[in-house]
Amino acid sequence: MRAVRRFTVRASLPEPLAGLGALATNLRWTWHPPTRDLFASMDAELFNKIRDPLRMLTALPPERLEELAKDEDFLRRTREAAAGLDRYLTEPRWYQRRTDDGLPQAVAYFSMEFGVTEALPNYSGGLGVLAGDHLKAASDLGVPMVGAGLLYRSGYFRQGLSLDGWQVEHYPVIDPNAFPLELVTENGRPVLVEVAMPGGRDLRAQMWRARVGRIPLLLLDTDIEANDEDLRSVTDRLYGGDADHRIRQEILAGIGGFRAVRKFCELTGHPQPKVFHTNEGHAGFLGLERAREIIQSDGLAFDEALPAVRAGTVFTTHTPVSAGIDRFPVDLVQRYFSDGRLVPDVDVRRVLQLGSEDNPGLFNMAHMGLRLAQRANGVSELHGRVTRRMFSRLWPGFDEAEVPIASITNGVHGPTWVARELSALLGGNHEEFGHEGRTPGSSLRDGVSDQQLWELRRELREKLVGEVRRRVRTAWMQRGASALELGWTDRVFDPDVLTVGFARRVPTYKRLTLMLRDPDRLRALLLDEKRPIQIVIGGKSHPADENGKQLIQQIVRFVDDPAVRHRIVFLPDYDMSMARYLYRGCDVWLNNPVRTLEACGTSGMKSALNGGLNLSIKDGWWDECYDGSNGWAIPTADGVTDPLRRDDLEAAALYDLLGQQIAPLYYDTGADGVPTGWLAMVWHTLETLGPRVQASRMVREYVDSGYLPASRMVAAATDDGHQGALSLADYRTKLEVAWPRVRIFDAELQYDHTERLVVGTEVTIRARIDLSGLEPSEVDIQAVVGQVGDGDELADSVQVPMEPDGIGAFAATLRLPRAGSVGYTVRVLPKHPLLASPAELARVVLA
User: Fold this and answer.
1) Deepest of 118, 523, 551, 700, by most Cβ within 10 A of its Cβ?
2) What are the contacts of 78-83 at 24+ separation with CB within 8 A?
């Protein structure tokens, strides 16, 4: 028989154990070992099996709970843990100790997925795990953030394999009551958020709260009886469905998410955010809802509200290729916005302008995100450059370097990912492993020998081997094998063999199968008698990505070969729990995407924090962090246009590095069995990459270059009845009329012709300029001097302000900055105190 409905009954705790409830529901336990130890002491075997304190309380027999309620030592430790959590939640931290004027009282952070823990399966991969790490680091730093997203009743799919190695997806039905979530209620009834749908209908969502340390994470859930049947399924699964399903999710995430944050803060007294951070463009519609709020509350027009919306928005893009951007048919967007119910007082024509692109039939979510945000960034230095090039057409007339998209390199939450054994060995503060908590001038190596580190690395590798064997056996059982034929799984992998890890999503650009370009060379590396390697692989392909599934099948068919299956494995259902074993136990972390197509790629950071060495294409974060001594850079066949030829060349380089450099160094041990050269690289990695790859560093950068200036700009735009926003709106209206008629005449270079032009020669650049009614104070007039090539394009230029020099004339005096072929031009840019960048309005007049 099948149940017609499922529900979860939570444990009834004896009164002395009441404090366990708060400890189990606040997800700080995911990165706080003492709290996990407390729950493990209740039943170590059970806890090691389920790794979830809330489920632990439900699974323990009532008599065991009664026994613990009388255990004075356990009660003392429970009180201490509860008091420690309370201190963590209330004490001043880094953010509270800052004295900057204008720090925002709250920041709202929107993401389509959040990977906080496998105990809350609401993520698919790197984007969600990054969002989870962002919230955790913000909590540790005391940044007053509110997270907002959707709760997926089937989460992301669970992955299995068919007998022939094809990916098989299934979606387990989840009950939110079984997870560390609380339903947000008012007067005992669920709080509902509504967004209008076409045809006079409304989509309603209830709000669940997860406690991520100090951060409330709000997740919207449409599976309620108040919705029509088709609307109940809006939050059924992550990244599933057609364009209509997808736009409903993104409308709910942005507009509904904004309304949820407002309502939650109103109910709880949490400060209302004035700064809004969108992690990718999925929640970009929230900018329209913010405009509606200002229009209706303050009586402004849309163009007058827009400066305030933009001032408070930070937009992070993770997309290095245009194909990765969400686009919707324009007629679909019109269908949802044209009746005026979804965002009243916002004209659908203005909505469509915000998402316009070269293809007039498509609405571009990234373009809308950029147009509604005053601050935008990519997620590594290289990705920032790629993104500026990709979106440069939105700022015509500006060099790519001037496109107003910055770079903030992603980071990972050390306390979540670092093995506690390693943290203990190195004496690091588990909440800031790698740099904080150490005495200035001290070294991680103080008091720790190479022998100790090598023994610990082997211990972590041995744990990985045990997990690999367990998962390989389970995977084969699910594929239909019998227990009697699986004795060989007890001999899979060896804790004394060089171990390489490769685990990530499986789109084609990440090149899961690059290692298979020459199967014979790979076999030779795996089976080398003196210096063997073993490779553990994991990853999911999007259910609709047939090419990705074919790559998985190719790998599975190779690893199924009895000759190599003890040295190379594919582990299905890659998730956070598997990832921790891999990051901690692998000696080398492999990443071989097509260069510039990896935005950041944080998995290698997590490996590095555990003493793993990266073997990677110089893409994403590795492009800026590789220093020649912390791993290896796979040479790239730049300029080779044939993708098959490029793959052949880069695979050959990969084999050469593994066989000729990496394996020899790993197995080059002294009489004590310790590979001194290898460990020198490990120590260097821990010392130098530790501070750079932390999510705490990333969040600090967002505070300093995003949230703080955004908060100040919001104040400038909204104070005194939105006088700043009104001023900027008036200025933009004035530009609309004047700008097309602004002209630059007679730009000329003047200098003493009796002297030779050498570096440092003083020259004057003069020009006559018709500002068409604009005041000189309303524009920024610049002389631009730089090197020129064959096409007269300026490079490495310097900009010098030009001052009035008579009626309609302007001049700048400067010393020539460089030798060689030098050129100059003159340009006019908009100027207003509420502009964060000269390129912000995408307007420039060139000589």
Assistant:
1) 551
2) 78/17, 78/19, 78/20, 78/23, 78/38, 79/19, 81/19, 81/23, 81/34, 81/35, 81/38, 82/19, 82/22, 82/23
Instruction: Round to whole Å and give the CA distance between 353 and 359.
Output: 12
What's the full length of the chain, in residues?
847
Q: What residues contact residue 464 under an 8 Å CB cut-off, 6+ apart?
A: 493, 499, 536, 581, 582, 584, 585, 586
The candidate with the shortest Cα–Cα distance to 307, out of 828, 732, 780, 735, is 732
DSSP H/E element including 501: strand 498-503
Paired strand residues for 161? 167
Give the bridge partners for 765, in sequence order.
749, 812
- CA atoms of 719 and 307, how far apart (whole Å): 13
d(CA 31, CA 22): 15
Tokens of 2: 């099948």
Q: At what angle do helices 708-738 and 286-298 cross, to 10 degrees?
A: 80
Contact (Cβ atoms closer than 8 angstroms) between residue 427 and residue 420: no
Residue with tokens 């800031």: 432
Q: Which residues pair with 795 in a beta bridge?
A: 787
DSSP track, 733-774: HHHHHHGGG-EEEEEEEE--TTS---TT-EEEEEEEEE-TT-
Which residues have CB under 8 Å from 532's CB, separation 6+? 494, 497, 498, 525, 526, 567
User: Where on the phi/psi map is residue 524: left (φ > 0), alpha (ψ -120 to 50), or beta?
Assistant: alpha
**CA gap 730, 830 in Å, rounded:** 13
- DSSP-assigned letter for residue 412: B
Instruction: Report the alpha-carbon distance of residue 27 to residue 48 in Å, rounded.
Output: 17
Report DSSP letters for 89-119, one per residue.
HHS--TTTT---TT--S-EEEEES---S-TT
Helix-strand-coil split of the chain, %, nearest 5: 45, 20, 35
DSSP 147: E
Neighbours of 352 (CB within 10 A): 17
Crossing angle for the helix pair 286-298 and 302-311, nearest 10 degrees? 120
Residue 459 dihedral angles phi and psi, to the nearest 5°: -60, -45
Q: Where does 362-445 have alpha helices with state H? A: 365-371, 381-390, 414-417, 420-426
The single-letter code of the amino acid at 563 is A
Q: Are 492 and 466 in contact (CB under 8 A)?
A: no
- pLDDT averaged per 10 residues in sequence order, the chain, 847 residues: 60 87 96 95 92 91 93 96 97 96 97 94 90 98 98 88 90 87 96 97 98 98 95 91 95 98 97 97 96 96 97 95 90 96 96 96 97 98 96 94 97 96 78 47 82 97 97 93 92 97 90 94 97 96 90 94 96 93 97 94 96 97 96 94 94 97 97 96 95 96 98 97 96 96 92 81 92 95 90 86 92 88 93 95 94
CA distance 252 to 150: 8
Two tokens, residue 240: 């599933």
CA 248 to chain centre: 23
Reduced 3-state DSSP string for 684-711: HHHHHHHHHCEHHHHHHHHHHHHHHHHH
Q: Chain centroid to CA 36: how far?
A: 26
Q: How far apart are CA 253 and CA 149, in angstroms?
A: 6
C-alpha to C-alpha distance for 622 and 617, rounded to whole angstroms: 8
Per-position DSSP letters for 199-259, written without gaps between them: GGEEEEEEEEEEEETTEEEEEEE--STTS-HHHHGGGSSTT-S-HHHHHHHHHIIIIIHHH
**pTM above the 0.85 mark?**
yes
